[in-house]
């Protein structure tokens, strides 16, 4: 049965879960047993919100879904969101996230903390991705010891051990491509389609393991100017170059399995890149993973 539309609120809702990102948010009405009863998505991410806007936004969601407790994850708990939920240092699991949740008592809202790498040679942070990763394990969609990839503007590579996030790395792959396409000397050259094909595969091969990425990027311009690359292929090559460098920097892919928390065209391109490097990409339903993770956290809060 399909979830009920938001204006028809099922009577057995137990709480509201919100995946509140930078540009978008998705609210779910959840039953006591974890079933999704209704959902809605809009563009009211944290960039569209002021600090004083959140109580009214929560009230509006409750008008549609019912006067229920709310649990929220993602950038809503960042310094740019409603209330900062301090990071939990890795290794981290679902009970740890629940124990460190930030409570806004007067609004009956709990905000899930992110996860950090606060010690060691490299610093990193995540917000929201941790719920999907640990939820995928909780739902049986991935094993307790696994490597995850979450493509996006800031791609995440996440390693888990015994159902705990032990290490991760953030790659600004999507943002770099957007910056190159919109600014600088390559702007105007990267307006062609980004899709699989010979140009994308050539970019993957050039980028994988490349120690001269700045030089490789300039090759795009030189290749077009000298007639060695068709202008309409430049964007696909650039995308392959960046994704190839991203995938090529991750240990454990050759001969291994990567659990891919993404769909659509970008997920398909990462699956191709992982396969070209000798790994196997296993798609994971990111919405199902989020729901499983947030439900486990909610149960630990109760």
Uncertain runs: none
Rounded to the nearest angstrom, the distance between the terminal CA atoms is: 28 Å
**Helicity level, as a percent range?**
25-40%
- Number of helical stretches of at least 4 residues: 9
Strand line-up in the sheet with most strands: 3-2-1-4-7-6
**Computed Rg:** 21 Å
**Main pleated-sheet profile:** 6 strands, mixed
Structural class comes to alpha/beta
**What is the number of strand segments?**
14
Mean pLDDT: 93
Outline of this structure?
With 302 residues, this protein is an alpha/beta fold.
Structure report:
This protein is of the alpha/beta class and 302 residues long. The protein has nine helices and 14 strands. It has helices at 54-65, 94-99, 129-138, 173-182, 198-207, 213-225, 234-248, 264-276, 286-301, and strands spanning 13-20, 25-31, 36-42, 70-74, 88-89, 102-104, 109-111, 115-117, 124-126, 146-150, 155-161, 164-171, 257-260, 280-283. The protein has a six-stranded mixed beta sheet, with helices on both faces. Strands 12-11-10-13-14 form a five-stranded mixed beta sheet, sandwiched between helices. Strands 5-8-9 form a three-stranded mixed beta sheet, with no helix packed on it. Strand 2 and strand 3 (36-42) form a beta hairpin. Helix 3 crosses helix 9 (286-301).
């Amino acid at each position: 049965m399909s979830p009920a539309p938001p204006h028809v609120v099922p009577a057995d809702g137990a709480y509201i879960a919100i995946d509140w990102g930078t540009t978008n948010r998705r609210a779910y009405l959840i039953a006591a047993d974890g079933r999704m009863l209704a959902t809605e998505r809009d563009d009211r991410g944290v960039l569209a919100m002021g600090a004083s806007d959140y109580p009214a936004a929560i009230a509006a969601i409750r008008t549609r879904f019912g006067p229920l407790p709310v649990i929220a994850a993602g950038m809503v708990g960042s310094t740019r969101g409603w209330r900062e939920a301090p990071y939990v240092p890795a290794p981290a699991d679902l009970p740890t996230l629940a124990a460190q949740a930030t409570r806004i008592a007067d609004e009956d809202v709990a905000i899930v903390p992110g996860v950090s790498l606060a010690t060691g040679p490299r610093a990193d942070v995540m917000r929201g991705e941790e719920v999907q990763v640990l939820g995928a394990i909780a739902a049986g969609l991935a094993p307790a010891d696994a490597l995850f990839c979450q493509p996006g503007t800031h791609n995440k590579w996440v390693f888990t051990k015994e159902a705990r996030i032990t290490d991760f790395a953030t790659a600004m792959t999507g943002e770099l491509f957007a910056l190159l396409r919109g600014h600088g000397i390559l702007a105007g050259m990267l307006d062609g389609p980004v899709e699989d094909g010979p140009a994308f595969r050539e970019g993957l091969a050039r980028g994988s393991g490349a120690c001269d990425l700045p030089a490789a990027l300039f090759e795009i311009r030189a290749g077009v100017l000298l007639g060695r690359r068709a202008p309409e292929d430049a964007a696909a090559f650039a995308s392959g170059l960046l994704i190839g460098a991203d995938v090529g920097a991750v240990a454990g892919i050759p001969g291994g399995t990567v659990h891919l928390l993404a769909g659509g065209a970008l997920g398909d391109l990462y699956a191709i890149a992982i396969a070209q490097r000798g790994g196997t990409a296993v798609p994971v339903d990111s919405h199902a993973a989020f729901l499983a993770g947030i439900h486990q956290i909610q149960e630990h809060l109760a």
